[in-house]
Design a protein that fits this description.
Number of helices: 19
Number of domains: 3
Mean pLDDT: 95
CATH superfamily of the largest domain: Fumarase/aspartase (Central domain)
Structural class: mainly alpha
Strand order of the largest sheet: 1-2
CATH class of the largest domain: Mainly Alpha
Shape: elongated
Helix content: 55-70%
Order of helices and strands: HHHHHHEEHEHHEHEHHHEHHHHHH
Largest sheet: 2 strands, antiparallel
CATH architecture of the largest domain: Up-down Bundle
Length: 451
Amino acid sequence: MITAISPIDGRYASKVSELSECFSEYALLKNRVKVEVMWLLALCAEPEIAECRALTGAEEQKLHNIIADFSPSEAEKIKQIEAVTNHDVKAVEYYLKEQISDTSLHDVTEFIHFACTSEDINNLSHALMLKDGLATLIPQQQQIIDNISRLAREFKTVPMLARTHGQTASPTTIGKEMAVFSHRLQKQSEKIAAIDLLGKLNGAVGNFNAHISAYPAIDWIKLTKLVIEEKLGLKQNLFTTQIEPHDYMAELFDSLSRWNTILLDFNRDIWTYISMGYFGQKTIKGEVGSSTMPHKVNPIDFENSEGNCGLANAVFHHLSTKLPISRLQRDLTDSTVLRNMGVGFGYSMIAYKSTIKGLGKLQLNQLNLATDLDNAWEILAEPIQTVMRKAGIEKPYEKLKELTRGQTINRETIQNFVQSLDLKPEDKQRLLSMEPSTYTGIADKIVELLD
């Protein structure tokens, strides 16, 4: 690990260990084996293919066991074959033939990889890898959403001075600001979940040419759909060339990138709130915040997450813009790029775990929040001029602008101005009783609408 070039496999290896089961070379080979075995089982179960006979229960179990018992050591056997063939998918075919050559299944060995092009196996394997990767990544995303939602509900009534363009603005609540991010992330999670992972099993140029040449009477669309959808849990795409066009992958990577962008935005806002003293951070015994300033507790978790979100998105962007493009029926530029899917997932997971860790260390500083609000009475210019408009008072905005812009404003200044206005008694009293900390609208009720 100490000599790894990529920090994913070095410094951060422990943070992404779950993804090795999804995106490693071993994972790719395991899924290739699974696809080949499922295809063979489907062929053997098809009555119209007499030469590929029906299997006994024990024979079917033998094939299923090849998948279940596939280990890194078995993957190494395939790599040894590949060293000779110089073709990774053909090596899987030869490996499987070796597995059954001295069993009762030896007579169906030539139906392994029957009528397939390499991309039939690869595209389904990559889709299965993405399926496994999402099953690992999505719970991390949901944990972030749940944690932010918890903060939203816990602090739904805690007032906070908002800032637009970095300047003091109408107050909100801590909870409402958290709810905005929770809602944004949840919406993107729903879009990710709705994306179909597609696959094809239709031969060298996508027309079932070889299939029809051997068995013209078989409904190959139906049979391949059975394997793709019922056995592998993917969605069939019939409109392909030699390769599945990867448009769904681009959609997925763009959606993951958008989710990460929102998280990056959240990280920056939390970083800013920490710098403003709205949040403190729990100290951990033994940790050092600065090499020279002992008092510091740096917001490193949110900084780490921000950086890794950026790296993940850089990879996802290249994947989404490159993969849908291929010369004519296909070229091999997609093959080397697809091997980096796990890199985008890896940087994303590092980011997610850092944000989760950072959220667990946050401590709200209500005193700082209250002090900030009490020093910003000028923000009540908004409700005052709004009520003045209601009362038909001429040029309310301009009058408040003259009162507040560049001036030191406090409770007395505001209340003296309100007292001078010709307003209905109930409107005047409402303005006189208002403070920056109470001018939060229905922020708390909006939080209650959070799913």
